[in-house]
Amino acid sequence: MKALRLLRWSGSVLSPRTRPCLSHLVQQPLSNRRFLSAAASPLQQAIQYQDQEHDAEEDLWGSSQAHEGDDLVIPEDMPQSLQQEARLRALPSPPLSAAKSSAKLAALHARLSFSPRLPIETLARCLVDATADSNPDFNNTSLAILGRDLYSFYTSEAILCRYPRLPTAVVFAAMAAYIGPKTLTQITKEWGVELVAEPGGEVDPGYLQCRREDSMLIRKRSPDSDTDPTSAVEEGQPPIAGANRPNAEQKSWRRGVSSMTVYDDEFGDLVKGSARGGRSKGTATTVEDACARFVQAVMGAVYLHRGKNAAKLFFKEHILSRHLNVGKMFEFKQPTRDLSRLCAREGFESPVARILSETGRATRHPVFVVGVFAGREKLGEGAGSSLNEARIRAAVGALKGWYLYSPLEVRVPSDVEGANARPWKPVLVDIGEIIV
């Protein structure tokens, strides 16, 4: 396959963009804006300036129509510095011109070892959440959608090609452990990114711009959002279930693993409304969701500006390099029964438990070592303080030995993309997990 050159495509991210509403943003009320210092705000200075010049309250506000809407009109004869600061405070997010002068943003760009091909303005856009700036030309929504799909694709192919026999529930758990919101939040902290108290145009663009809301408040507002596929987080919003899931109105129906694979997201959770496109203006988000969208947006920016190879390298260095003990994610309710069904499906002899060794049978702390055999082949071995405990541990060990099989040479489908790639060698495709 021929590699695509994305240099022209990435130019759209840095195309000269202007805010068409900037000319009238200064006409919007500034009385509800927050100020981080104890000095007089531009609004207060503007009022004082107009009081000194005009000495009349009707001159402080524009026409009578503007007074009804409480829209502050910045006079043309106000000093330029006050006008500029007032315009910045009227913006929902920092302007692009402030990115080059931000020390935090430059430090983050160097900390992630980004080349000059990834402009610092794009990194600043990755830090603007949709809850801070609803304009899709200035927030990270589009980059986060691309980055989320890339993360899901690279992670799923890495897990399935390395462990082709994993049960679907364990695959979902491994996906959440690699690229889940909690993991991406931890990555954000490791990168040294801090969240802003309140977003605005005057804030340093090196902070993560979002409107925060406590997760406990969201749970109180929608206590059944995790289990009810028809409940909504906010009034007037569509149900959190995906539009493709049939019979979403049936609350008591069981969600099987097969339906979770087809209809739900990459973690096996219900597809929440507007989860891929961010939230509407004026709403708040949790810290985990904002951090997750930021890390996903960075991945999308790397893919657009530096190409597929750089994106895969970035994924391996920051995501796949993390140690994940997949063996601890298993939870068997009846391992002996599952092992019997597995042997019957694969044509093995029925498993038989045999004592391999024991010590201290007549004492308070005996130890028994039991092995599970299928004919002459030992499938697993376990030790315990009783024969039943040792037998169960041996069955669990046999099941893990089957499910955690990994080929010696692991290749993923994305490795064959490109002109100089080696021919694709098919990997093992297992029948599936045991159905009891």
3D structure, described in words:
The protein has 436 residues and is mainly alpha-helical. 41% of the residues lie in helices and 6% in strands. The protein has 17 helices and three strands. The protein has helices at 7-10, 22-25, 42-54, 57-60, 64-68, 80-90, 103-111, 120-126, 141-162, 168-179, 181-190, 215-221, 257-263, 287-306, 308-320, 335-346, 387-403, and strands at 352-359, 367-374, 377-384. It has a three-stranded antiparallel β-sheet with strand order 1-2-3, with helices on one face. Helix 9 (141-162) packs across helix 15 (308-320). The longest helix is centred in the middle third of the chain and has 22 residues, at 141-162. It is elongated. It starts with 6 loop residues before the first helix and ends in a 33-residue tail after the last helix.
Question: Short summary of the structure?
Answer:
Helices cover 41% and strands 6% of the residues. The protein has 436 residues and is mainly alpha-helical.
Topology summary:
Blueprint: H1 7-10, H2 22-25, H3 42-54, H4 57-60, H5 64-68, H6 80-90, H7 103-111, H8 120-126, H9 141-162, H10 168-179, H11 181-190, H12 215-221, H13 257-263, H14 287-306, H15 308-320, H16 335-346, E1 352-359, E2 367-374, E3 377-384, H17 387-403
Antiparallel strand pairs: 1-2, 2-3
Helix pairs in contact: 3-6, 9-10, 9-14, 9-15, 10-11, 11-14, 14-15, 16-17
